[in-house]
Amino acid sequence: MVPHLSKWRPMPITTHRKPDRDLSIFECEGSLSLNEIIAVIERFFQGTVAPPTNKILWDIRVASIDNLTADHISKIADLVSGYRSEVKDTKIAVVVSDKLNTDIAKNFKVKSKGALKHLMVFRKIDEAITWLEKDKE
Question: Is the model's pLDDT at 106 over the cut of 90?
Answer without folding.
Answer: no
